[in-house]
Amino acid sequence: MLYQPLEHWSEREFMDCGVEDLREAKSISKMADKLLATPENSFSSSVGNSLRKAAWRIFSKEEVDISYGHYRQSSLRCSSESMVLVHQDTTDLNFGGHLASEGLGDLGGSTGKPILGLCVHSALVTTEAGIPLGLISQKIWAPTVGSKEKKVIPHLPIEEKESYRWLEALQDISHRLKDVSKVIVVSDRESDFYEYIDATRGRNVELLFRVHHLRRRVYANGEKIALGQVSFSSLSEIDVFLPKSKTREARKARLTIS
């Protein structure tokens, strides 16, 4: 693949962003250059007073979407690849310390007190070697943990559940990477649910995810048994390091790929 030089990268990424005129697109491009040059600074100190005011004017409009241009460039970078990997996952952004913020949701937590923040579900494309090619889908929302009773949630349509983000990203992947010969979407065990596995996707799109429901019954060798009881042949084994958490000590685990 031929990678374009970094010079003028921001103009390419934002030339098709959803703004009213070209001047706003140029302002966003300049902001990106400034932020890249000083990533350790706050937004205001990085971009300066005039661009900060331009940012306020641009992003105060609800209909503005600056992502489209980047998605298009990501698709172009993928077009010369015979196979790409798309890594799907959700990140919590904790803004609990920002007391003047508005529009935040409840991230939940074990303390019983609301943790204010946002959720970001991203689909990042890389080459087989792990070189990033860009985002191909991203959704940001304010979560509503605790606003619905647990007994009600399972009966809601999938479109009204937060897990619908997996299907929305899969739709974006199928549409924006339709010209790539093979696309493998990688995700963790949170994506192991029926609607995601059964969702319509492009013929070039395959799913690779960590199994969560081992008690699911499947057909193997002519009989219906629990997935956890199926004997798989091992393709390879690798060691992965698991850092310390609240519930376990740091350790090395052996991962079997079947």
Structure explained in plain terms:
The protein has 258 residues and is of the alpha+beta class. The longest helix is centred in the N-terminal third of the chain and has 16 residues, at 22-37. The protein is built from seven helices and ten strands. Strand 9 (236-242) and strand 10 (251-257) form a beta hairpin. Helix 2 packs across helix 4 (49-59). Strands 1, 2, 3, 4, 5 and 6 form a six-stranded mixed sheet that branches. A two-stranded antiparallel sheet has the order 7-8.
Mean pLDDT: 87
Low-confidence region ranges: none
Number of helical segments? 7
Proportion of β residues? Answer: 25-35%
Largest sheet: 6 strands, mixed
Amount of helix: 25-40%
Structural class: alpha+beta
Keywords, separated by commas or semicolons:
258 residues; alpha+beta; six-stranded mixed β-sheet; two-stranded antiparallel sheet; 10 strands; 26% helix; globular
Question: How does the SSE layout of this entry go?
Answer:
Blueprint (H helix, E strand, L loop, with lengths): L8 H6 L7 H16 L5 H5 L1 H11 L7 H12 L4 E12 L10 E2 L9 E11 L5 E10 L22 H13 L5 E6 L6 H5 L6 E5 L7 E4 L2 E4 L9 E7 L8 E7 L1
Parallel strand pairs: 1-5, 5-6
Antiparallel strand pairs: 1-3, 2-3, 3-4, 7-8, 9-10
Helix pairs in contact: 2-4
Describe, in short, the structure shown.
This protein has helices at residues 9-14, 22-37, 43-47, 49-59, 67-78, 164-176, 194-198; strands at residues 83-94, 105-106, 116-126, 132-141, 182-187, 205-209, 217-220, 223-226, 236-242, 251-257. The chain is an alpha+beta fold and 258 residues long. It has seven helices and ten strands.
